[in-house]
Protein 1
Amino acid sequence: MEKIGFIGMGNMGRAILSGVLKEFSKEDIIFSAKSPETKHRIYEQTGIEYADSNAECANKSKYLILAVKPQCYEEVLKEIRYMVTPAHIIISLAPGKTIEQLKLNLGKDKRIVRAMPNTPAMIGEGMTGVSAVREELSDIEKKVLLQIFGSCGRVEFIEENLMDAVVCASGSSPAFVYLFIEALADGALRCGMPRKQAYIFAAQAVKGAASMVLESGEHPGVLKDNVCSPAGTTIEGIAVLEEFGMRNAVLKASEAVYKKCTKM
Ligand SMILES: NC(=O)c1ccc[n+]([C@@H]2O[C@H](COP(=O)([O-])OP(=O)(O)OC[C@H]3O[C@@H](n4cnc5c(N)ncnc54)[C@H](OP(=O)(O)O)[C@@H]3O)[C@@H](O)[C@H]2O)c1
């Protein structure tokens, strides 16, 4: 097995690594990071070999995951440019950076894959969209890519023009959901529930509702209707959410995320 390399071990690097460690052996993985502190910490926690430089990490791996912030790409790409070959598969996690742009940096003959995961990957509940020039990849390489991202949740190959939509739907949206859970718990707190308990009730309700959408195959509107009885309590709450424009707020938030992606 050719190694999986990570450049960057922040939130997303660690999230993917935690899944990858379930599917691949430590010897199949190598990483680099900016600071010696991060390298030593990850090594102590996982026993995974680290590279002294990004170029060394690129040299020793085949599947190279760029898990650094988009602002660091220029610097990192400069460091690895002369080390990557057409045999590498460079996996970019950066929103808004297209395969074409990355090929301009690394060379037209280089193989670039874009992946957009999310932080629930850390507990195996991630959602990742992957796009690539599919004819550039062998069946085995596609399988390994699905194995890497499947190790931390669901994964689907998608067309590259939908990548920014993936950022809206699943990349950034966990933050929206945390805001919602926090607000739900604050509401329960106002009604007297202790805070710790309120987070458990609110989070489990969101998790359960999400599982209902995925497992029942029902339209979310139908599931919503099932909770609302005539002249009941829930429809009173729905009326207030509609009055304060909850749907519109979410649509506008997605639009803002999308716009930002296109400016990265
Ligand atoms: N966070 C999310 O929810 C999320 C979701 C989808 C996609 N993404 C994408 O995932 C990528 C990583 O984001 P993140 O949230 O994981 O960032 P992060 O938590 O800030 O971590 C960035 C990592 O990059 C390392 N780094 C910075 N400059 C470097 C350099 N020159 N060479 C080597 N390593 C360097 C840092 O090293 P030190 O630890 O030593 O500082 C750190 O480990 C981004 O492109 C982001 O857009 C993130």
Protein 2
Amino acid sequence: MARSAIPRISLAHLPTSLEFLPRLSRELGGPRILVKRDDCTGLALGGNKTRKLDYLMAEAEAQGADTILTIGGVQSNHVRQTAAAAARSGLSCHLVLPRAVPWDDPAYEISGNVQLDHLLGAQVHLLPEGTDREAAFRRMARVLRTNGRKPYVIPSGGSNPTGAMGYVTCAEELEAQARGAGEKIDYLVHATGSGGTQAGLVAGFHRLQSKTQVLGVDITAKADEIAAKVWDIARETSDQLQPENDLLRASVQVIEGYAGDAYGLPTEQMRTAVRQAARLEGLILDPVYTGKAMAGMIDMARQGRFSADQTIVFLHTGGMPGLFAYNEYFQEEQEMF
Ligand SMILES: Cc1ncc(COP(=O)(O)O)c(C=O)c1O
């Protein structure tokens, strides 16, 4: 199926810009580093989920849904952007938020993304610790249907072949930008969590027969699970676009070692990377996703994974509201002068 035949609405501000990071490139002393600014997709502080929602919300509309239901951690960026998309479409929105991260900053459950979820008018269902999250999610869908609602259910992270189509589009956009700027992109590095972003990119670059390699830095501390999920979604997405295609499992490269102990728990390498990006380039990252991905990219550059004549694109997937939920962690060791 032609990608243009797939229903899509226009929530994201596109194209996002592709910018050179001269001071970070110099600091790393090797490859040219560019950033693709998907933190600037525009909807309620932006981020990667907006591209997915362009397709998911079109499907919701086509199915005649009157309610959007989704799930994510307390500080989920996906949930915040979904709440905004539902508000824009005039649909009611229910958010199931399991307490998945043992983090006790007083801001964690009231600031950042969760504050915005309330502001956007969504019904927030915060689950007690230890609740079976999938069972609670299914139960909420049942309750909505029993009450006569027509919910459109979006999986965690908006990660299914419909959502991944947003990143097929991003691969096309990036190829066109690179061609226009005379750049050849050797690697694209980004944070991979629920898998849809990486799956869409892998399927998209494959369809374009591009040589750009996608490196998804695992932020879940469950790299094997994520790699399997990316592969499943990438294959299904590719099959929808071109039934006869030879997508290879080897094109799914999930980089482990930068997630720390668990999803959402900060690492020292992440904090250093967040500070470096801010102080060298005025670029604000987040502690859960882009900070860990940047830590991975910096470390891979220092380990010599990239050569000096290569070009790397760091995909900034957003997430900045999450920074405010880790207020105390970033106050520690604050220099006095
Ligand atoms: C800021 C940010 N970056 C990256 C990701 C990972 O994207 P995906 O879930 O598609 O793997 C997420 C997902 O929640 C995110 O919020």
